[in-house]
Amino acid sequence: MSPLTKAFVVLVTVLSVLLVALVVPYVAQTEDYASQISDLEAKADAAELSAKVAQQEKSAIQEGVSKESALLNQRVTALTKEMNQLREQAAEASKNVLLGERKLSQLEAELSRLSAAAVQDANLLTITTTDLKETRQFLVDSQTKLVQLGDRNNELESQRDSLNRQVNRIGEQMVSLEQDNVSLRGLLARVPDQYRQEVSTGQGDATAFEPTNPIAGTITDVQLAAGSQLVQVDVGSKDGVEENMKFLVHRNEQYVGTFVVDRVESAIAAGRMILIRGEVRSGDQIYTGPY
User: Fold this and answer.
1) What angle do CA 20, 23, 24 make, to 5 degrees?
2) By three-state DSSP, how is residue 208 classified?
3) Exposed, middle or buried by CB within 10 Å (0-12, 13-18, 19+), for 269?
C-alpha cells in the first residue's frame, strides 16, 4: 500500500471518528427538541381547549347576565307599576282620611248629643228598672202558675185519653152486643132449641184477645176482598203484635170499628174488620191493651 493510500485511510478514519462524535450529540439534541416540541404542542392544545371552555363559560355567563338583566328589567317595570298603584292608593287613602276626619267631627257632635240624651235615659232607666223588677216578679209568679196549669192540663189530657179509650171500648162492646143480638135472634129462629151455636169473634176457631201491654199504631191500607174489609197497619211482631189480637179503630175521638189480626210480619200486620161502625180509612188510629 502506498503512503498516499495509507494517509487517505487514516484521514477517512479520523473523519469518521469526528463525524460520529458530532452526529451522536446532534441526534440526541434533535430527539430532545422533538420531545420539547411535542410537549409544547400538547400544552398548546390544552391551552386551546381551556380557551374554548373559558369562551363557553363566558358565553354562558353573558347569557345568564342577559336573562338576569331581562328579569330585573321586568321586575323594575312591575315595581314601577306597583309603586304607581300604591301612589294612587295613597292618594285615595288621603282622600278617605279627610272624609274620615269630617265624619269623625260629625260623630263627635252626635256623641255629645247622645251623651246628653244618655243622662236622661239613665234617669229613665232607673225608674224603668224599678218597674221591671216588679214586672219580673209578676212574670215569675205567672210562669209558676203556667207550669202548674200545664201539669194539670197534661193530667186532664191523660184522663181524657183514658176516658176516650173507655168510650171507644164501650162503643165497640155496644156494637158487638147489637150484632150478637141480631145474630142470636136469627139463629134462634132457624135452629132447634136443643142446639147451641158457639159464638166466636173471629172466623176460625181461635178467639180474639187483647194483650196485657198497650199497643198503638196507624192503618196504612184498606181493601175489600171476598166480602170482608181488610186493613194493614204499621205495627208488627217487633211491637208485640200477634195473630188473633184484637184492635180498636178510632178517628180522633170517634170509634170506627174493631179488627182482628190474621197475618203478622216484623214491622207490619194485616187483619179483617169484625165490627164496623163507620167508614174505615188509611190514617185511622188503632189501639189495644189496657186503658
Assistant:
1) 85
2) coil
3) buried
Q: How far apart are CA 134 and CA 80, in angstroms?
A: 71
Helix or strand run (H / E) with residue 60: helix 3-190
Rounded to whole angstroms, the Cα distance separating 258 from 195 reads 29
**CA–CA distance, 178 with 13 (Å, rounded to integer):** 176
Residue-level length of the chain: 291
SS3 letters across 95-144: HHHHHHHHHHHHHHHHHHHHHHHHHHHHHHHHHHHHHHHHHHHHHHHHHH
Which of 237, 259, 241 lies closest to 249, judged by CA? 259
Domains of the chain: 200-288 (2.40.10.340)
pLDDT digits 0-9 by tens, 2-12: 777 877 777 88
pTM of the model: 0.37
Give pLDDT < 70 ranges for the chain.
1, 24, 26-28, 156, 159, 163, 166-168, 170-206, 291
Pair type for strands 269-276 and 228-233: antiparallel
Beta-carbon contacts of 223 under 8 Å, excluding residues fewer than 6 positions away, are: 229, 230, 231
What's the rounded Cα separation, in Å, for the pair 108 and 100?
12
CA gap 178, 176 in Å, rounded:
5
The string of pLDDT tens digits covering residues 154-212 is: 776 776 777 677 666 766 666 665 555 555 444 444 434 433 333 333 444 468 899 99
